[in-house]
Amino acid sequence: MDATPKIGARLMPLFESRLGLGKGSFERRAKRAAHRLPRWARRDLRALSEAQGMAGHPKLAMRLDMAELTRAEGRIARHLEAIDVKARRRYWQLGVLAGLMFNLALLAALMAAVYYLLIRS
């Protein structure tokens, strides 16, 4: 059946460009992308992965609902296209900077407490 390469083919370049998942098969990329996606997208990815496994078998391939699989693939593709890679990178950098600033403030407070204790005694 020629449905095997069609299932999830639209998502492969989006996994690479939007989530940075450049290596591996569709199942492997879907598994790595799952924790970054909402629950409904994980459910759709699971359905697409199961469908890819079934598409290789002629009798099981007849049981696939290609319209539902196409809709699921479209929903995931729209969600991935809406991801702003630059904003994700910026928010990650701000998170690292905030953690660093918190640690420096904690270190300054600790040093002030030690200095106070040394002066006092």
TrEMBL record:
Record field: transmembrane: 94-118
Keywords annotated in UniProt: Membrane, Transmembrane, Transmembrane helix
Record flagged with keyword Transmembrane: yes
Name of the molecule in the record: Uncharacterized protein
Species per Swiss-Prot/TrEMBL record: Alloyangia pacifica
